[in-house]
């Protein structure tokens, strides 16, 4: 009993006086998983990390993972690297320097833009300004509040009645900052661009934009820990949060999710245990004209299709892949950025309980994709702000193709 009280006291004290986490001299290594023995080693480290952090999960031989090595584990890492003959290349020598570069105050202008990453309040204020500037086109949406009481805000963009709808989801994983920035940039283009192709999709679809679907986690990445991924609910005495992209009620906990509350992939105590996913799904279910759902993540340069719990094909798999292949081919034209496409379970790893699986499997939405945006791991989650606009530009190029090709198949 005394131990339990001490743990509670530590957790509460930490919550009130937490300092911002720093990653001075943390190194990021790219490791190629070449043998079953190496895979077992890496999976054991993932289960008992003691300071190590994986930026992508070790799931099978023949893949590569990014591992963050803290200073106090350098000796240990050197030993296991030699013992297991690990192929490991240093990607980043000092992670904190990369984080500091990403958040340079000089990048942030007085007006909202895309030369820096902005916090939730600034994003929401900008959404409010769009409602004021485009009152006949932009409608404010507030679907409820997060665990810590922050609103989950979005906007609807509609130029005329009778359109099919497109949903844009960002920042469900808190540390994937470029996902929210891309969503807001696309929104701005739909309102301001004179490009005929952009105008065509802007005015002939209803758009639902939710750039920050995990506001508590996103704020925490700014105030306390840049590498935070989950929500901020109280998942156990010692640990907070669940992975909001493992928490949806479609094949919940059917692989690639953890039942351990401290894990980054903790699925939650039950489907929709997180108020954020529960309210978001409730709202999406009210949209009877939804034809396209686009979720945005980083990193890996992938265009993913359902499902995450199985390699079995969804009902319109061939058409979805054909459309997506044309989309990533178009994406490559502007800057040469190469994407791959595939089913989640095949292209990356088994991961059940994700938003796009629920949208497809429960709502039967015709076209459903998840983008894993730039890059391939050089910067990982800490993508420099200079890459926001190029990332968003090429992404919009591909979205145009998804909608054009979807119309050709009769989905809209």
Explained architecture:
The protein has 412 residues and is an alpha/beta fold. The chain has 2 domains: 27-103, Metallocarboxypeptidase-like (Alpha-Beta Plaits), CATH 3.30.70.340; 120-409, 3-Layer(aba) Sandwich (Aminopeptidase), CATH 3.40.630.10. It contains 13 helices and 12 strands. It has helices at residues 2-17, 36-47, 74-83, 95-102, 120-133, 177-192, 196-203, 215-223, 275-284, 317-335, 344-347, 355-361, 388-408, and strands at residues 27-32, 53-54, 64-69, 87-92, 138-145, 151-157, 164-169, 205-210, 290-298, 302-305, 340-343, 367-373. An 8-stranded mixed β-sheet has the order 5-6-8-7-9-12-10-11, sandwiched between helices. Strands 2-3-1-4 form a 4-stranded antiparallel β-sheet, with helices on one face. Helix 6 packs across helix 13 (388-408) and helix 10 (317-335) packs antiparallel against helix 13. The protein starts with a helix and ends with a helix. The active site is at residue 372. Keywords: Carboxypeptidase, Disulfide bond, Hydrolase, Metal-binding, Metalloprotease, Protease, Secreted, Signal, Zinc. Pfam families: Peptidase_M14 (PF00246), Propep_M14 (PF02244). GO terms for molecular function: metallocarboxypeptidase activity; zinc ion binding. One of its GO terms (cellular component) is extracellular space.
